């Protein structure tokens, strides 16, 4: 009987392996799960852990690797995959401990050697940065002296009018400048450093002036004191993660309309990291914010943070294309980004999701002091706004990511009822169709990076919000990826930790 089960399980494992090779990671997980149910083995749990890593379910990957180790303490792939998953959630010391186990038994393992070297480097870098942070708590932007910057001789683009008064920097942004900048980026060139610094610094001033909860709406009767009614706007488009996929962002604007007085956009976080054009995406969005301050809004995502940028590519990309100082200025500007937006007092938009307590209200988001620390707290509503995910079952549970938690339809329904909301819009997760309407229609996930990381094969999507007889209605619209130069995701990162 056991032999029959082993043979059946092995056939299902082979099907899972085929799906894994095709980058159908959910399909692979399905077959591995069926195989485990028939006859569990360390290899099956470890293979499923690998598939979970590919779709960023790092918490589930850690659980699977642990089960594999429990079944076979000598199965080294499980230790390695758990190390990779720990690295992805920034648990570097735990990851290093697992890698050392691999190397103690297989000292010539090249993958483990590489991961150990990178983990040691990043742990030491963090120690160094913490040590100097005590002495240097100043603002990188406030130390800029743009008068001392020259313009690189290779630059052939338009001039940018820059003003610096009492350490505050502003620019005169034009559509001509943005069009020429886009053309420059498509040639593979960079802005002059002086321009890049000025754009980030000027955008930071605009973000700092916004509240932690931005409240906007289309023109209609409203009793909300804090809502900015966009008189000339006919449509608000909400975009999810774009992750440095510059060419897909350009296609998004081509398909769904340009930013302007009649069309407002809200980008819901995670516009950097992973993709290899994060600088281009960030500078484009910042320029649009400067040109159309009431028609371009950006929420903070979990990837607009130093810890994530250090691992997922943005820091190294900034250093490669510009310099470390520009990354530090971007980091300061990320800390000025709002945590959430409220559209028409009816649709709350945040990157991650809802909260571990039913007592949290929209007013608590309004009260967030995002300038009390240089990075988001590791717990509390700020962390949850950036990190949490929905689940199908009622209640709350531990996160499949290993960070934050998950919330069910009952949590969403209660939050919407308590805050008089029609729905919550969030991003943070790949959806193969680009979006998903969840939790009885009260939660919508939108993801705007098609064929995420050149591997997932997913559609991208946006959500258009318009008025119909004075009532908001939404329309989820999808798009496919477009071709881009032959540069892989995370091309510039020096801290690729195996995922």
TrEMBL record:
Descriptive protein name: Serine/threonine-protein phosphatase
Keywords: Hydrolase, Manganese, Metal-binding, Nucleus, Protein phosphatase, Repeat, TPR repeat
Family note: Belongs to the PPP phosphatase family. PP-5 (PP-T) subfamily.
Gene3D superfamilies (alphabetical): 3.60.21.10, Tetratricopeptide repeat domain
Broad class of enzyme this protein falls into: hydrolase
Primary location group: nucleus
TPR repeats: 9-42
EC assignment: 3.1.3.16
Cofactor: Mn(2+); Mg(2+)
